[in-house]
Amino acid sequence: MGFRKLLKNEDAVSISIGFILMFSVTVIIFTATIISFYSLSQSNEKTTMGATFKIIGAGLATKITTVDTLVNITNSYGGTVNSLEYEFSMPASVADKSYSVNLTNSTYQIIIQSDNGAITYTPLNISANFNAVHIYSGAENYKLTYDKPSNSLNIVEE
């Protein structure tokens, strides 16, 4: 008789189902928390890269404008600038991601962007001709040169 009672006893079933349900709910909540933190960190990375790109773009625009201003001031006082070189550096990566710098001569903008979608536009206003250039991060040292015969500014990688 004791064996038949054991087969009909359902006390252990409710404990097992309760444990499985609690474990499943805990795993689902933990997974949702991890996914939300991951998406939040991706958003922060993009925002940080955008702010850093603005700083890099403003610095590069300042350097280019400085060379253009030096040439214009020298020419306005009767001097002659045959060539001028300005060495500068940019970081090889931002937030451990590579990026590219596109200097356009049609809209006079410095466009800095990365693969994760972070992008900034920095205006550039100079009087000399500017040869458009597309720079990929990796090299840190660059040279900004002025060439008198063509009255143009160029950026080359060192």
Number of strands: 8
Structural class: alpha+beta
Strand order of the largest sheet: 1-7-8-5
Give the number of helices.
Answer: 2
* Radius of gyration (Å): 31 Å
Distance between the termini: 93 Å
Give the fraction of residues assigned to helices: 40-55%
Low-pLDDT regions: none
Task: Kindly estimate the percentage of residues that lie in beta strands according to DSSP.
Answer: 25-35%
* Global mean pLDDT: 87
Order of helices and strands: HHEEEEEEEE
What overall form do the CA principal axes indicate?
Answer: rod-shaped
- Please summarize the sheet with the most strands: 4 strands, mixed
Q: What's the arrangement of secondary structure elements?
A:
Blueprint: H1 2-8, H2 11-76, E1 83-89, E2 99-104, E3 109-114, E4 119-123, E5 129-130, E6 133-136, E7 141-147, E8 152-157
Parallel strand pairs: 5-8
Antiparallel strand pairs: 1-7, 2-3, 2-6, 3-4, 7-8
